Structures are given as structure tokens and as C-alpha cells.
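Typical record was shown:
=====
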Amino acid sequence: MENKTGKYFKYAIGEIILVVIGILIALQINNWNTERQNENIRTSFLKKLDAELDYNTNRLDTLYSKLNDIKEQNIKLYDTVLIGIKQHNLETYLKHHGFNASRLNLSSSTFEQMKNTGNLHTLKSDTLLIAIESYYKLCEREDFYIMRINEGIYKVSNDIHHGHTKAQLDYALKGLDYALKNNAWLLNTESEAYGEFMREFYKETIALFDILRRIDRISDTSINLKELIKKELENRYL
């Protein structure tokens, strides 16, 4: 009787051990599946992030090209401003509109989605995580400063009641003779209005250099981040 009880007890323990092992294996398989799904999600986000960086880079390239053309034009025009505008080249300055206030309008939707879903901090590379967060902080910071620069230039250069803007408006409404008649200072390098025009023109040119430098900084950071993402994606397929 005791032998039968002992055998039954051993059998029961064996069954329990098998059940526990089965549960552990099932849990491990479930964990593997969950991790694989999470890994696929992270990979998908990284690919979307890479595409977002491409969008931002294209946007920055377009802005840079536009603003750099204005900067180069300003440099050429400023040489003439220093010497003195003459009547034969006056129209060049009256047609020059500089640049309008504009935000960078870069995309951050994928980054925000990664943060909101908690997937950002599941990245296994601390270097990549820091690089991503640093990039979007840089975009936000430079966008703020560029907008402040733009607003300052826009405020000064778009007062229709004085200076270059008034002369441009007169020219647009009634032609060159009317603009010159009502803004004789354009040909008088000794006038206070001409000196103010030179200072505004100089400030706008310096502002363009500053904005272009900030755009360059974002572009360079974007290139570095794309390289980190590329390496991370390559490692996932090894």
C-alpha cells in the first residue's frame, strides 16, 4: 500500500513539474513573441523617423537655397549702397523685397507619436535615444530663434509709412518718377533716411547669415542622426 502511495506521489510531483515546465515554456514563447512584435514596432518607427528626417532635410534645403539667393543678392546690392544709389540702378532696390517672416515648419509627428506611445524610451541604444531627443530639441530651439530674427526684420522693413518700404510702395503704385519725387533721400547718401536704409539693409543681411547658419546646424545634425538610425536598422537584420 505504501509503495503504491509513494509511486502515486512521485507521479503527481512529476505531473506538476511537467505542467510548470510547460507554463514556463509557454510564457517564454509569449515573451519572445511580444518582444518580436515590439521590435517590429520599433523598427517601423525608426523607418518612419528616417523618412521624417528626409522631409525635414528637403524643407531645409529649399529654405536655405531661397534665403542664400537673397543673401547673395544683398551682398551685391550693399556694395552699391555703400557707394551710393544712382538713378539708373534705383529700380533694382525698389524691386528688392528681402525675405518675409517664416517658420521652419519641420515635421515632428513621428517623434511625438513615439513619445506618446512610450516607444521612444524602449530603444535599446542610449546613443540613438539621446541623438533623437537632441535633434528635435535643436529644431524647436532654432525655429524659435529664427522666428524671432524674422519678426525683427519684418517689423522694421514693413513699415509702409517710411523708408525703403514706403519708396517701394510708391514705386509699385505710381512708378519710378513718383517714387523718386516722394523719396528723394534714395539718391542722397548724406541724408538721415539713407543712413537708416543702410543700417536696415545691413541688419537684414547679417540676419540672413545667422538664419543660414542655424539651418546648416539642423541639417548637419539630421545627417548624423540618419546615420545612427541606419546603423541601428542594419544591426536588427544581422
User: Anything to note?
Assistant: The chain has a mean pLDDT of 85. The chain has seven helices and no strands.
